[in-house]
Amino acid sequence: MNLNNTVGKQTTSASASSNKFTIKGDLHTYRFCDEVWTLIIKNGVLKLENGNLSAEDAENASSENPDLELKCDKLRIVACSAKKQGD
C-alpha cells in the first residue's frame, strides 16, 4: 500500500469530520526553528469531543459522557506550515 495514498485518505476523513479535539496542560518548552514549531506539554489532557467515535472507543467511553479523554505525562507536538504545490 502506498503511504501517500493512506495519508491522503486520512486527511480527507479528517476534513469531513465534525469532531473537536482539545489539548490542555502545562507548556514546558516551545521552539520555532526552520519553519517548524515544537511544543512540549507536561501533564497533558487530550479530549475528543462530539464524538463520531469508533466502536472500540465508544465502549471505553462512559454512557453519561461520550467524550474520550486521554491523560499523559509528556506530550510533544511538532507542526509545520502546509505549503500548496507550486509555492
Automatic annotation (TrEMBL):
Name assigned to this protein: Transcription initiation factor IIA gamma subunit C-terminal domain-containing protein
Native species: Hanseniaspora valbyensis NRRL Y-1626
GO biological process: transcription initiation at RNA polymerase II promoter
Entry's localization field: Nucleus
GO cellular component, one term: transcription factor TFIIA complex
CDD domains for this protein: TFIIA_gamma_C
Keyword field: Nucleus, Transcription
Domain of life: Eukaryota
Primary location class: nucleus
Residue ranges constituting the Transcription initiation factor IIA gamma subunit C-terminal domain according to the UniProt record: 24-82
